[in-house]
Amino acid sequence: MSLIRHWKKFLALALVGLFSSWLISCGNGASTAENSSGKAEVEFWTMQLSPKFDDYFNELIAEFEAENPDTAVKWIDVPWSDMETKILAAVAANNAPDVVNLNPNFASQLAARGAWLTLDDKLSEAEKAVYLPKIFEATQINGESFGFPWYLTARVTLYNSEIFEEAGIAEPPATFSELAETARTIKDETGKYAFFISFVPEDAADVLQSFVQMGVPLVDDEGNAAFNTPEGTAVFQYWTDLYQDELLPREVLTQGHAQATQLYQSGQTAILTSGAETLSAIATNAPDIAAATKAAPQISGVTGRKNVAAMDLVIPRSTDVEEAALKFATFVTNDENQLTFAKAANVLPSTVGAMSDSYFTDLPADASPVEIARSVSASQLEDAAVLIPAMEDVKVLQKVIYDNLQAAMLGDKSVDEAVADAAAEWDGR
Length: 429
Hints:
Elements: H1 2-28, E1 40-47, H2 54-67, E2 71-78, H3 83-92, E3 99-102, H4 104-111, H5 125-128, H6 133-137, E4 140-141, E5 144-145, E6 148-154, E7 156-160, H7 161-167, H8 176-190, H9 206-213, H10 230-244, H11 258-265, E8 271-274, H12 278-285, H13 287-292, E9 293-296, E10 306-314, H14 322-332, H15 335-345, H16 352-355, H17 369-379, E11 384-385, H18 394-409, H19 415-427
Parallel strand pairs: 1-2, 1-3, 10-11
Antiparallel strand pairs: 3-10, 4-5, 6-10, 7-8, 7-9
Helix pairs in contact: 1-3, 7-8, 10-18, 10-19, 18-19
């Protein structure tokens, strides 16, 4: 509980600054930030996109400034691991940027407290309809829209065909049930692990998403625990059995999701669930593994639901260049610019127009593994959604479930105790 209390204390301190910024903003009225040239300045933060995409953003900003000569854009790229701390500190200090790149889960934590500009009265229905409906829904909390959908990653199942052949397995698993069977066969026949998935509370939400894919809602309409059911217990049991049967690496309890790629490209695991863009890195780091890699649709549960990881752009409510910030966020996320970035980064766009481009559907006869993986990823998008809904304290929920799940995996609690304790801890927070 100490980490949870620490998080809430930190967030509360940030909110004190946020409330102060609102008061200052209200007192100043509609002021405008200007740079030394007298232009309105939009400060734009992205998350770990430099230096790889410097050319793209420099050209994007130059084009926007040419079309909007009264506005200048100041671009700052922030390391992935620093973004949450930096944006909280900036908001608390009344020094937030004007447009920020965040994922929906973290953005929703402050959206619930009114940190971001509400877009419902800023965008027309036609402007909202530019974005894929299920993706736009992920930028809403309490019925209000707080962000512009940007780029997406719909995971695929990358698998080492040589390990599968050695194990005598013809097809990759499509469901979690099949994944467990595959894991046992690969371990018995090759001595290797089938896959790696992190149970570190502060890391990826893949395990949390598996509950939804296996038909278990995380919370009910009142925000109380909804996983303390026979179905939820079965998911706890599923992961506990895999660990206790030694079908998962021991370090799943201590290492983050980056370890999954390391193990796969070193040939120690047979399956990697990741975005198609990861295959490019594997081709560079481990060309032999990449050559043996094939792509299949994302593993799911009884629901058949596929998860998509999204990136959004949000505008702090305290911005004093609201009109310019809205115009810039709309520009970055329009069809043309999303398609260009998707091609450069090997990700997926979040607009209807960009996703309809033949780039995602028409493969050449000599398509590379990366191109095939991208096509598989894109083909899932119609049925994909951000499975963890935008909600307050979602990271606290993840920690509560992961901590208790780890206790069951280690034998410190029974599965039933772990489920009951997790529900009680969440409802009593």
